[in-house]
Each structure stands twice: as C-alpha cells, then as structure tokens.
Specification:
Layout: E1 4-6, E2 37-38, E3 56-59, E4 73-80, E5 88-92, E6 98-103, E7 112-121, E8 124-132, E9 134-135, E10 138-139, E11 142-146, E12 152-156, E13 179-190, E14 201-212, E15 218-223, H1 224-227, H2 237-247, E16 269-274, E17 280-284, E18 289-293, E19 300-304, E20 312-313, E21 323-327, E22 333-337, E23 350-357, E24 362-369, E25 382-385, E26 391-394, E27 400-404, E28 410-415, E29 425-426, E30 428-437, E31 448-454, E32 457-463, E33 472-477, E34 480-486, E35 491-495, E36 506-511, E37 517-521
C-alpha cells in the first residue's frame, strides 16, 4: 500500500498538529459525545481561530520526493460533523500544511462552501466557491469570486425566469466568454405514472443557466424536463418513496415522494462543462448518463450511458451514479464513476477515462484510476486531468484525495478525515470536490505574529494566511536586524535574541525569493484564544 507519513514535517510548539499528539485541543471530548473524538487538527499560536484538519499521506508505487516540492496547491471544501476541524474553504501545500483558510460559521447555515478552485476571469486567476445553504444534496445560493488578495470581486447567481439565489452547489464553471455555468433545481409538475408515481406529481427539474458574470444577464437556459423524459431515471421510485416515508415517520405532516413538498429528483445534474466544439457536456447522476447539448438550440446531440445510451459501452466502461464529466485535450472523456449510491449493490468507486468513437458510437476504457484499496464513495467527488496527463481524484464523501500517473499508477493518497485514524474518531470530512492547481496569493492584510516565552526563551510565531510568495521572515529589534529565517510551513518560529524580547521594539517582515519585502507587522504580546 505504500509508506504512510503524517502531513506535517514535524511537530513544533508554534504549529503543533494533533495528528500524533492526541491530547491537543483538536481531540477534546467537548466536541463530540462520550464515545467518539473529533478529528485531529492543526493549531497555530498566531492564528488560533484557524483549525484546519491534520492529514495523513500514503506514498504510492509511483511516489518520488519531488512531489513534496510540487508547485500545485490542494483546494478543498471539507465538511465535518464536529466543531473541530472547522468547515470552510481550504488551500493546503504538497505536505498537507495550511496555506489559506476561510472558515465557515457554525452559526450561519447559509454559508456552506462547495467547489473551491482556481479559474480564469477577465484575464487573471481568481478563486471561485459556492456559498449558501445545502440541504438534501441541493443548494440555493451564489458563487463568490475572489482575486489574488482574497478580496471579493463579485458574486454570481441565477437570474431571468428563476430569480436570484437559486444557484445550486454542483457547478461553478467560468467559460472563455466571461460567463458562468450554473445549475438549479426547480420543483415542477410532472406525470409520474410511468415510474410508479402520481399523475399530478412533482419533480425537481434540473435547469442550466449560463450567466454573464459582469452583467448578471442569462444568455442560455436549458431544462432537463424539456429534453429528457422522467422514464430515463435509474432511481427506483418505489424504494425511494418507502425511504422518504420511513424518514417522515412520526411527523405531524409527513412528506410524500412526488408531492410539491417532496419533488422526485429524477435527473440530478452535477456537472456542466464546455466540450471542445463549444457544446455543453452535462452529467446526470440519477440517469447514469452524460449528455452533449447543442449550445444554441438546447437539443441533446447524444447520450452516453444510462438506459437510452447512443453509445455501445464495453462492460468495463459502464459507469453509474457518476460525477464531473469533462472532455480531455486528446478527445477522451473523463469522469468520476461513483458506482454507488448508498445501496446494497454498491461497488468500489474509480476515476475513469473513456475513449469515444463518435462515428461507430462505441466507448471503451482508456484508463482507470482505482483507490489503493476498495473505496465506495456514494456521493460527490471529481476527476481532474492534470497538465502532465496524470489524474487528481477528490473522493467526495470519502475524506481522501489522490494523484495518479497517466497510466493509472498511484503516486499518493491523502486522508483528511476520520476514517484513516485508529480509535473512536468522528466527524467525516468529505469534500464535494478536490483540485491540484497553481495559485499565487498576496493578501492585503498584514501578517499575524505573537511573542511567546517558554523556559526563559522568547520567540515570535508568525504566519500570513494565504500568502504564497514568502520565502523568509526577517526579525528586527529597534534598528538592528536580529534574525532571518526560512519560512517553515504556515507558522514559523523566530527565536528572539537576549535583550530584544519587548514586543513594541520588534518588527517582522516577509521576504520573497529576491529578498524584497512583501509586508510586515509588529508582534502582539499574546494571541487571544477563541
């Protein structure tokens, strides 16, 4: 399976991780019940308000030491069922150390983050993330766009016939035309008799809107119900109805599947991407199919997979309950094959690349990306094709991310949740998607620094949330340079020479690779614990 190591290079007083020290605050019993402990988290004296997860890295057969120094950062939006680690938007480096975090508020159910990633807008790299409520696998919110200093540029949401704040959490893709592809779920009347429901039933219609980011205008809209019949669903209506009834048992006004209060989600759109000819590729989890849409008329050009596939798929190419369909530069189609939905017939999930012959209308496996051992991800997840032809997999409901070579050999597998820990840990930690991407962040805020004393020795603990260009930290005491040390993870410890331990006389400066000053601050006497 490969060598296992912890995500932090070592334990430091200034940024102690709870991975190997189970007595730290991240394992306090007040976060869970008497039978379970919350997942270990990283801690920082200069930023006690940030509590990202500690990670465990397993090296695969294709591991090489250069992976530790990779330029890419890891982008996640994990969700935990305990107070710590925190939910939020998260950037980690190759060693699993924090780079940037924007915590979600436990008190605000309307700021759940999904799908944090780097995209290009208006000629520059930006961060995008869905923020809003999430319930029952759907969202009704908006997408926040941040610049390289983590300042908000704009927010994007639905418009036109849907009105605002109906953007779903599943898709946030920015196109070359300066538009964003959004999904929405719209309760709509539908005849459900062909699937065992009422004639006057209701479904969740999956709607696509392409929205001009600058103006908010809707330039394209598509409805699944107008193009894909309810009979293409692979969801067992009778079993779903029974499950809804069991969950509603004891309610004063129990929900009934197919009603206006509990619409049947027959399609479940979960990705919208642009094909190489400008068409749209749409993944629908509940029909086990990928659709190519004509972007001008909305017509379905072809269907891959499901009960009405236009392609003949080899047996090992058949996928189900999938996510995240993309056209690769070489013409293959990539997706995450969940092959699971929480049922008795679940199988191990995988990343998948399919070779499509659009003349013979056949599909076969070009490559697959399997976990180091069987891993059933029944929800969420993605498969990101990397520039070198390799694949990055975010395992969705399973708190892992992995990287593979182009031919499917595992480079590493990283756990950021409860299931890689021995003992009674709780909290989950799944992330809707995960990405490995390049990013340059230069915050407009000052660094954070605190003066500490231990055993008669003074030191400054310094960090700068989101700063990616810091190579060294310089400490000055009055007019004199006291020390210059290399950046050492999110938080760096700088020893203070004897006689220079008065916070008011100290100054910390962040230096880039050329020795240029990026920013600075004066350390406080202590950090306020939250």
């Amino acid at each position: 399976m490969g060598r296992v190591r912890r995500g932090q290079r070592r334990l430091r007083r200034s940024a102690a991780t709870a991975t190997a020290m189970l007595a730290l605050a991240g394992c306090g019993g007040d976060d869970g019940d008497d039978e379970s402990r919350p997942i270990p988290h990283q801690e920082f004296l200069s930023r006690p308000d940030l509590k990202p997860p500690a990670v465990e890295i397993t090296e695969g057969p294709a591991w090489s030491a250069r992976r530790d120094a990779a330029d890419e950062y890891i982008f996640l939006s994990p969700n935990y069922g305990t107070r710590t680690p925190q939910d939020g938007s998260l950037i980690l480096d190759a060693a699993g150390e924090l780079v940037w975090m924007r915590p979600a508020s436990d008190e605000d159910p309307d700021d759940d983050p999904f799908d944090l990633r780097v995209q290009e807008y208006d000629g520059r790299d930006v961060l995008t993330v869905y923020e809003g409520p999430s319930e029952g696998g759907h969202g009704h919110g908006e997408v926040t766009v941040l610049d390289g200093s983590y300042e908000e540029i704009t927010r994007v949401t639905t418009g036109g016939s849907l009105g605002p704040d109906e953007a779903d959490l599943h898709e946030t893709t920015i196109t070359e035309d300066g538009t964003m592809l959004l999904a929405a779920y719209v309760p709509t009347e539908a005849d459900l008799t062909d699937v065992g429901g009422p004639a006057d039933g209701h479904v969740e219609d999956a709607v696509i809107q392409e929205v001009d980011i600058a103006t908010g205008d809707v330039v394209f809209e598509w409805s699944a119900l107008d193009h894909v019949p309810v009979t293409e669903t692979m969801v067992d209506y009778a079993a779903e109805r029974e499950e809804v009834a069991e969950e509603a048992e004891g309610d004063e006004d129990p929900a009934v599947l197919g009603s206006a209060e509990e619409p049947f989600d027959y399609f479940h759109i979960n990705s919208i991407t642009v094909d190489d000819d400008g068409s749209l590729l749409v993944s629908a989890r509940h029909t086990h199919a990928v659709y190519r849409l004509d972007r001008s008329t909305g017509a379905v050009d072809w269907t891959l997979g499901g009960s009405s596939s236009d392609f003949s798929l080899d047996e090992d190419a058949v996928f189900s309950w999938q996510h995240d369909a993309h056209r690769a530069p070489d013409g293959t189609l990539t997706l995450f094959d969940n092959h699971a939905h929480g049922g008795d017939d679940d199988e191990s999930s995988r990343g998948l690349r399919l070779a499509l012959d659009e003349e013979a209308m056949t599909a076969e496996v070009a490559a697959e990306y399997r976990p180091p051992e069987e891993r059933v991800s029944s929800a969420m997840a993605n498969a990101q094709l990397l520039d070198d032809g390799g694949m990055f997999i975010g395992w969705g409901s399973r708190p892992h991310y992995s990287e593979y070579t182009a031919d499917g050999e595992l480079i590493y597998d990283v756990c950021h949740g409860d299931e890689c820990l021995d003992g009674d840990y709780d909290g989950g930690g799944g992330s809707y998607r995960g990405y490995a991407l390049e990013w340059q962040g230069r915050p407009t805020t000052d660094p954070d620094a605190v003066l500490t004393e231990e055993g008669g020795e003074s030191a400054v603990q310094v960090s700068w949330n989101g700063a990616t260009e810091v190579a060294e930290w310089r400490l000055t005491a009055g007019e004199e340079e006291a020390a210059t040390v290399a950046r050492d993870g999110f938080e760096t410890t700088i020893p203070v020479p004897d006689g220079g331990a008065e916070a008011g006389s100290l100054r910390i400066e962040a230096l880039d690779d050329d020795g240029e000053v990026l920013g600075g601050t004066t350390p406080s006497e202590s950090a306020d614990e939250e």
